[in-house]
Amino acid sequence: MTVDAPILEALGVNKTFGPVHVLHDVDFRVYPGTVTALIGDNGAGKTTLIKCITGIYPADSGEFRFDGRQVKIHGPRDASALGVEVVYQDLALCENLDIVQNLFLGRERIKRGLLDEGSMEQATRETLASLSVRTVKSVRQAVASLSGGQRQTVAIAKAVLWNSKVVLLDEPTAALGVAQTKQVLDLVRRLADSGLGVVLISHNMNDVIQVSDRVCAMYLGRVAADVPVTPATRREFLVELITAGRSGEVGIQGNEVTL
Fold first, then answer.
1. What CATH architecture applies to the domain 8-83+164-258?
2. What sign does the dihedral 107-112-114-115 (CA atoms) show?
3. In whole angstroms, what is the distance from residue 118 CA to residue 253 CA?
4. Burial grade of 101 (CB within 10 A; 0-12, 13-18, 19 or more)
5. Residue 82, helix vs strand vs coil
6. Per-residue confidence in pLDDT tens, the chain, 259 aa
7. Distance CA 124, CA 92 (A)
8. How many CB atoms lie within 10 A of CB 9?
9. What DSSP assignment string belongs to 25-39?
10. Rounded to an integer, what distance in angstroms lies between the CA atom of residue 204 and that of residue 208?
């Protein structure tokens, strides 16, 4: 379901590292209830853009808007306060801790000076149930005992536990088998169907076509195209945008971008 007004906008974003101009006047929009795939070759600027959005890097210029109002993002806490959460490729989970401990790591609930284990367990079960996760036997399982797909599920649950409105997923199906990939993609779709704005960073064009509503393709630090995914969208079209910055009449034409 695509809603006309974007929940998150990055407008005219530029970023340089010394003499290297990494992002060139990048416009990027995320819509509630929509999966937006962010694609591009290595070095295209995807990670830098996400780190600017989440406050890890300060943008040199440009502005950010959330729910239609201009916001200042000075660090990751500012992004989290807005409702923007990131699931990085390394998942950032502690294998020696169980699912509940991972979900509340650094944000533990305290009652009368002690950990409120019952409340945290209940919230964990409710979050997993809201995502229709049925593959986890116990919320007290150690993360070390989980499969790759289950770990990805826990990392996503950790992101949505805190009333997030936008979830950024960095290569969520990398190194997963076929069954686990389907499990994660189904979860990505459910996140969007629940009203969240979802950003999927992926090099797998089959996954992108299967689960995404829109695609934003970056090429050498610029947005080459921001287009809807339709039944007619071909893998070859997306690959051309990634590798050449254009496909037919869509993309960067000389110094111009035609969408």
1. 3-Layer(aba) Sandwich (3.40)
2. negative
3. 59
4. buried
5. helix
6. 445 799 999 999 999 999 999 999 999 999 999 999 999 999 999 999 999 999 999 999 999 999 999 999 999 999 999 999 999 888 889 999 999 999 999 999 999 999 999 999 999 999 999 888 888 889 999 999 999 999 999 999 999 988 899 999 999 998 788 888 998 999 999 999 999 999 999 999 999 999 999 999 999 999 999 999 999 999 999 999 999 999 999 998 765 555 5
7. 17
8. 21
9. EEEEEE-TTEEEEEE
10. 6
| Chain position carrying tokens 């974007």 | 6
Q: Which residue has the tokens 């996400």?
A: 50
From CA 45, how far away is CA 172, in angstroms rounded?
18
Residues in the chain, total: 259
Q: With beta carbons less than 8 A apart as the criterion, state whether 23 and 47 touch.
A: no
Domain with CATH 3.40.50.300 in the chain: 8-83+164-258
